């Protein structure tokens, strides 16, 4: 009987059978081990065992996500914030239903210093990229927050007396830089959570800030994870709920001060985020799409080896999941990962198993 040399050493067998090591990333890597081999026979099937990277155990996918809403609070934004507040349940219900461990905070695009005469009033002063809230609401909403859906909607209703020069990109960098990250915004970012940022504006970023500069900064906040196919996966993305087409009738109706969110659309495209229209009369469908995109990225599974895609078999709680971009899984080459969609997005208690044959295995 002869085993493949790659798996023949005792140290290799011990590493495959030992307790998974902690690596502190936002998703987990699955490792392949030999399941069967017999004299004169070669069984190409390999079992993919989940490894613990700090918050994943027993095949449970990542369910931690930190969500930052960047809300434009310039003069034309009142009706859009009202619409967001009344539609926010279509966004929030997804995270509740899947049992996600979320943290949600809001900053405004008015990054001027806080007015010392009105320190708690985001309608009348800048907030220097500090998290804001409505009344006595907590500034960071979690699954333990009472009436969390309502609280997120209220916190996002930041008024429309902010600066006309909306700093949507700058606000993100300032929010996650010192002194804010250790003071007014402390307790939000987690090293083992996916980071989702949502830009919400009826205009473009009106500053000198660039998309490339913000992405370079965010890469320091969430270091990309290298994959075995010489690629990498970011631990964040930026979604945008903005004006996509200024000639669309619904967008024209927003008035002469609205404009295409060019920078916001660009950063969404470059980071893999979702895009939704701020021109819609009802935001529910757009928010549903943004929320599902966040769930897909948060629960995605990076594979340790580049697989022969035709051999991938995915099960959840022992039930096989179909290869489908609607209600199943797909394989992404760039990130060497399995991504779940629709009803196949796992909950916090779903046991996921992935079997595959590594593409470069010695046969």
Map the helices and strands:
Elements lengths: L9 H8 L11 E6 L2 E2 L2 E2 L3 E5 L13 E8 L6 H10 L1 H9 L3 E8 L39 H9 L11 H8 L18 E7 L10 H11 L3 E2 L5 E2 L2 E7 L6 H4 L9 H10 L3 E3 L6 H16 L1 E3 L9 E4 L2 E3 L7 E4 L4 E4 L11 E4 L8
Parallel strand pairs: 1-12, 5-6, 5-7, 7-10, 10-11
Antiparallel strand pairs: 1-4, 2-3, 4-17, 8-9, 12-16, 13-14, 13-17, 15-16
Helix pairs in contact: 2-4, 3-9, 5-6
Going across the biggest sheet, name each strand in turn.
14-13-17-4-1-12-16-15
Low-confidence region ranges: 1-58
Number of strands: 17
Largest β sheet strand count, sense and barrel closure: 8 strands, mixed
Strand proportion, as a percent range, falls in: 15-25%
The total count of helices amounts to 9
Average predicted confidence as pLDDT: 84
Descriptive report:
This protein is of the alpha/beta class and 363 residues long. 23% of the residues lie in helices and 20% in strands. The protein is built from nine helices and 17 strands. It has helices at 10-17, 78-87, 89-97, 148-156, 168-175, 211-221, 249-252, 262-271, 284-299; strands spanning 29-34, 37-38, 41-42, 46-50, 64-71, 101-108, 194-200, 225-226, 232-233, 236-242, 275-277, 301-303, 313-316, 319-321, 329-332, 337-340, 352-355. An eight-stranded mixed β-sheet has the order 14-13-17-4-1-12-16-15, covered by helices on one side. A five-stranded parallel β-sheet has the order 6-5-7-10-11, with helices on both faces. Strand 15 (329-332) and strand 16 (337-340) form a beta hairpin. Helix 2 runs antiparallel to helix 4 and helix 3 (89-97) runs parallel beside helix 9. It is globular, with a radius of gyration of 23 Å.
């Amino acid at each position: 009987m002869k085993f493949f040399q790659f798996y023949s050493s005792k140290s290799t067998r011990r590493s495959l059978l030992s307790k998974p090591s902690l690596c502190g990333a936002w998703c987990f890597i699955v490792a392949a081990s030999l399941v069967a081999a017999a004299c004169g026979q070669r069984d190409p099937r390999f079992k993919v065992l989940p490894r613990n990277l700090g918050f994943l155990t027993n095949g449970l996918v990542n369910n931690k996500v930190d969500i930052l809403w960047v809300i434009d609070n310039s003069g034309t934004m009142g009706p859009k914030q009202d619409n967001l507040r009344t539609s926010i349940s279509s966004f929030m219900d997804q995270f509740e239903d899947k049992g996600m461990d979320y943290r949600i905070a809001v900053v405004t695009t008015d990054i001027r210093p806080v007015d010392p005469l009105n320190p708690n009033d985001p309608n009348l002063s800048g907030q220097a990229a500090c998290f804001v809230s409505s009344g006595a609401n907590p500034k960071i909403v979690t699954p333990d927050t009472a009436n969390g859906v309502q609280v997120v909607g209220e916190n996002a209703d930041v008024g429309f007396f902010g600066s006309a020069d909306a700093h949507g990109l700058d606000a993100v960098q300032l929010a996650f830089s010192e002194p804010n990250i250790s003071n007014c915004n402390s307790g939000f970012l987690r090293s083992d959570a996916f980071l989702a940022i949502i830009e919400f504006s009826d205009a473009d970023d009106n500053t000198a800030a660039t998309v490339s500069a913000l992405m370079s900064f965010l890469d320091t906040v969430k270091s990309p994870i290298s994959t075995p196919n010489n690629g990498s996966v970011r631990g964040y993305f930026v979604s945008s709920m903005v004006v996509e087409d200024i000639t669309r009738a619904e967008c024209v109706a927003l008035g002469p001060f609205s404009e295409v969110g060019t920078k916001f659309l660009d950063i969404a495209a470059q980071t893999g985020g979702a895009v939704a229209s701020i021109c819609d009369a009802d935001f529910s469908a757009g928010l549903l799409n943004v929320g599902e995109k966040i769930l897909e990225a948060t629960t995605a599974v990076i594979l340790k080896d580049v697989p022969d895609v035709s051999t991938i078999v995915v099960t959840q709680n022992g039930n096989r999941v179909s290869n489908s971009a609607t209600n199943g899984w797909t394989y992404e080459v760039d990130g060497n990962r399995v991504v779940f969609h629709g009803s196949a997005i796992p909950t916090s208690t779903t046991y996921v198993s992935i079997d595959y044959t590594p593409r470069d295995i010695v046969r």
